[in-house]
Amino acid sequence: MRAPAQRLLLPALLLPLIAVQCGRENPEPALVPLPAGLKAYAHFLPGTHWVYRDSASGRLDSVWVVSARTYIDEDKERNRWISKTEQLVVRTASSRESAQRVYRSGNGCPTNPDSSSFNRTLNDVRPCWWVERGVVVSGDQDGASSLLLPYVLRVEQRELVGGDFAVISAYRHRAPQRLLGGRVFSQVVELSTAVDLSESGNPARYWWAKGLGIVQWRVHRPGGTQTRTLVRERIVQ
Q1: Are 52 and 61 in contact (CB under 8 A)?
Q2: Other CB atoms within 10 Å distance of the CB of residue 206
Q3: Which of 16, 78, 132, 226 is the most exposed place for a label (fewest CB within 10 A)?
Q4: Cβ proximity of 189 and 207 under 8 Å
């Protein structure tokens, strides 16, 4: 007959083995960092300042970064690991609007490669990363947001992006783009959406340039179309 001490010792020895086995079945995933290309378009630090000109009135509008941070998003379901990714949040203020805006990153398939280079043929990827923008209602609370930059995108091919967002049309240019006002920007992503919740639900179009962020945006309001184009900037990344 086995002694009581021996009966207690056996389960105690098995517990670490069970824990190790469970850990092997669902190990903590490696951290997936923000794609370098996405950060080049959307991650700007305090000290960054943009000045836009309104095409209709000729007035200038200053926009600046209030705060910016990156954080680790640990996605689990019933204590089982799904993913572990780096994300960003950038808040901006404007000289012509009382409400601040918040830009957030997100991703749906973190194993996709970074497509920060415009010299690669990307025929087998879809926009798994994105940046969305919402209007800050009060404090840290922001209202409904809209997708403003899908990423990854194939070069010189128009993409329709849907999912949880209003369907948008995005196009990634290879050649430099001359926008309103005559200024030329390189590595531009052009995006249009029929419903932009960060612009009161109005249709809008955006031009993003690598290292500069939004260089031009056009909103179709009931009273007319408003286009703002970047005229000068101070960038901190």
Answers
A1: yes
A2: 22
A3: 78
A4: yes
What's phi and psi for 50, nearest 5 deg? Answer: -120, 145
Mean pLDDT taken over the chain: 79
Report the alpha-carbon distance of residue 185 to residue 168 in Å, rounded. 22
What residues are paired with 202 via a beta bridge? 196
> Where residue 124 falls among pLDDT bands split at 50, 70, 90?
very low
Q: Which two tokens stand for residue 187?
A: 């590595």
In sequence order, what DSSP letters do the residues of 15-74 get, joined into one string?
HHHHHHHHHHHSPPPPPBPPPHHHHHHH---TT-EEEEEETTT--EEEEEEEEEEEEEEE
Q: Dihedrals φ, ψ of 148, to 5°?
A: -120, -15
Task: Please name the helix (run of DSSP H) or strand (run of DSSP E) that holds residue 233, with its range, or none.
Answer: strand 224-234
* Residues making up the chain, counted from first to last: 237
Choose from 15-24, 27-36, 109-118, 189-198 the range with maximum mean pLDDT.
189-198
Instruction: Give the separation between CA 93 and CA 66, rounded to whole angstroms.
Output: 6
**Which CA distances in Å does 137 have to 66, 93, 134, 141?**
15, 13, 9, 6
Q: Identify which of 187, 176, 235 has the alpha carbon closest to the alpha carbon of residue 46.
A: 235
Query: Which of 204, 203, 211 minimizes the C-alpha distance to 190?
Result: 204
Determine the Cα–Cα distance for residues 129 and 52; give it in Å rounded to an integer.
27
How do residues 12-64 score in pLDDT, each as one tens digit? Answer: 555 554 444 444 577 877 888 888 889 999 999 999 999 999 987 889 999 99
